[in-house]
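I'm curious: can you give me some protein's one-letter sequence along with its backbone structure tokens because I've never seen that pairing?
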Amino acid sequence: MEDTLRALMATVALVVACSACMTTVQPRSGEVVGVGELSWGGYAPISTVGSGQLRAVGRVREGGQTRALSLGGTITSVLDANGGPPPPLSFEGSFRVGVIPRCELGAFGGIFRIGAEARCGLLSQREGAPLAAALSLGGAAAPFFDLKGPWLRGGVDLSRRFDNGMAALLNVALSRGPEHRFALEQVPVDFWDVPPDPNVADDPGASFEIEREETRLAVSLGFGVGDEVATFVIALVPYFVLDDGPLGAFECHRCETVAPVALEERFGLTLLLGVIPAL
């Protein structure tokens, strides 16, 4: 056959730690603002860890040989594919304004998504309830990627503030839309059993950028501490991939012999930092 894709069922155990992956849900208060009042938030994921399998195909090389291949892939939030610090692309900010009693409209955005949402309050600690609760529904687009969207999200926000300035936050959301992955891979030097061609051999820092449609359930377990101005939060955000589509787009950097064709991932965990208004 020509130098085109041949069957190479490569299974890759992925350990993912990605600084450029925004979470489905972020830690925020269950309190909604009053009519005409403003609320805001800023978030940055520090690291994401997950596991899965990447099915890949390989190109026929000298001698027409193919072999089964087991690749180990890692992603680090410290280094990007070029061996340098990643750009701060994963920051996401939001603002909301109260439009009617107990309901607010707002917008959120970052490099991955730009969208809008509505939230309505169910319970308020300011009114004597033991905790604050709100329902939200929103949508977004991904204008900077091949899969533009739509990306839809609905969820519930729960919070409880304590007298010592600390707060607990629980946020649960279900989403459907394009998600973005970044993965590194390495091909063993002796994989092809032929002298490597320095012009086409995979670089040790080869990387994939992968996009596909997913249905995700995400839970943010957050803890906050602050004063009368702002609350600083740290959260663990586990996510579960309930359904997924085929790879809608991928790009391979510095790799000529292996390309992804399918990704299986069902679970991941993100460490997230943020700042929100005082609770």
User: Anything to note?
Assistant: The longest strand covers residues 230-253. The CA atoms of residues 124 and 132 lie 4 Å apart. Confidence is low (pLDDT under 50) at residues 1-20, 64-88, 186-205.
